[in-house]
Design a protein that fits this description.
With about 300 residues, the protein is α/β, with parallel strands linked by helices. The chain is built from 9 helices and 7 strands, in the order H-E-H-E-H-E-H-E-H-E-H-E-H-E-H-H. It binds NADP nicotinamide-adenine-dinucleotide phosphate. InterPro entries: NAD(P)-bd_dom_sf, Sc_DH/Rdtase_CS, SDR_fam, VLCFA-Steroid_DH.
């Protein structure tokens, strides 16, 4: 029988124990933030009549946030690009939650100019305490970078980065005045750096780093604003028409779960438990192998979308 030297087996035992501890620590850390209760109520204490602004609120996860925030007693500014759709969604919300107030803000984020500063006037004196930077998306199916047009690249950056950055800049003083305040930025698993969605992927990488930078800035400047980035996996939405399952939540479930993460030790956290478990792969699997698995999943997704189309 093969005999290993004693110090080799001892070393293996230590490596095994260290790996088990590391995995246990990773799992426990992830699970903890999903069982503690949300700190969201501190942004809408009794008698304050607080407002939240949700960007990209006419569909998908954004409309999910509008519903979830209304259910938790917030008045909601719904932002979108299509006035009729905004009015329709506003009516739906008012019918579902008659005691809350809603207002709409029409602004196409792809055509952003300096006029975006007028959003401050649209907020007016409303005690805004929550900003959900949700608007975003990929603007094209999986496509190699050289095949993308100038306009597609420019618009993807405006949709995912430019508007979010400008709105955050404009609203920090308002959130501080009404403090404590919350800024929640919606990121994506794509920030890992994925092929064929390179521009979107890079934009979400910006969202992650911007979230961390602004969170630090709020702390060192002593502003009472929590900044939390939510990492999101596959979610059924307007642009991602997949079937709902345990790993693919509906937009409303995703929004509810993200709001339950408020108060977590961020600045970046997974919003939904099954996504957090899937995210362990990013920690444990070597990048080259993981990219091969991701490419396979993206191929399956593309075929699925093609069938639906
Ligand atoms: N769904 C997923 O699997 C997934 C995964 C990871 C991250 N995310 C992130 O989650 C966020 C929401 O995604 P989603 O899937 O819920 O998207 P969605 O269903 O396509 O909804 C996007 C929302 O943004 C609005 N919007 C789009 N372009 C706009 C523009 N130019 N100006 C103003 N509003 C605009 C849409 O308005 P209209 O109703 O007029 O179209 C809609 O309200 C994004 O940041 C996305 O990157 C999603």
């Amino acid at each position: 029988m093969l005999q290993f030297p004693e110090n080799f087996t001892t070393a293996l035992t230590y490596i095994g124990a260290a790996t088990t501890c590391y995995l246990g620590f990773q799992l426990a850390g992830r699970a903890y933030w999903f069982i503690r209760s949300s700190s969201l109520p501190r942004y809408n204490p009794p008698g304050k009549d607080s407002w939240a602004l949700v960007t990209g609120a006419t569909d998908g996860i954004g409309f999910g946030f509008a519903q979830a925030l209304s259910r938790r007693g917030f008045n909601v500014f719904l932002h979108g690009r299509n006035r009729e759709k905004l009015l329709r969604r506003q009516q739906e919300l008012q019918a579902q939650f008659p005691s809350i107030k809603t207002k709409i803000i029409v602004y196409d984020v792809i055509d952003i100019t300096e006029e975006v500063d007028n959003i401050v006037q649209e907020i007016g004196d409303a005690p805004l305490t929550v900003l959900i930077n949700n608007v975003g998306g990929s603007l094209s199916d999986f496509q190699k970078l050289p095949d993308k047009s100038y306009t597609n690249v420019r618009d993807t950056i405006s949709l995912n980065i430019t508007f979010m950055t400008q709105v955050t800049r404009l609203l920090i003083p308002i959130l501080e005045k009404n403090g404590p305040g919350l800024i929640m930025n919606i990121s994506s698993v794509a920030s890992y750096g994925m092929p064929w969605v390179s521009v979107y992927s890079g934009c979400k990488g910006y969202v992650d780093t911007f979230t961390k930078a602004v969170a630090s800035e709020m702390k060192v400047d002593g502003r009472p604003i929590e900044v939390l980035g939510i990492c999101v996996g596959n979610v059924q939405s307007q642009t991602n028409a997949i079937d709902v399952s345990w790993t693919n939540p509906s937009s409303l479930s995703m929004a509810e779960s993200a709001l339950n993460r408020v108060g977590s030790k961020g600045p970046m956290v997974w919003g939904y438990l099954p996504h957090a478990l899937q995210g362990l792969g990013f920690v444990l699997i070597p990048r080259d192998i993981l990219i091969m698995l991701i490419v396979k999943t993206m191929g399956d997704l593309e075929q699925d979308w093609a069938k639906r189309r």
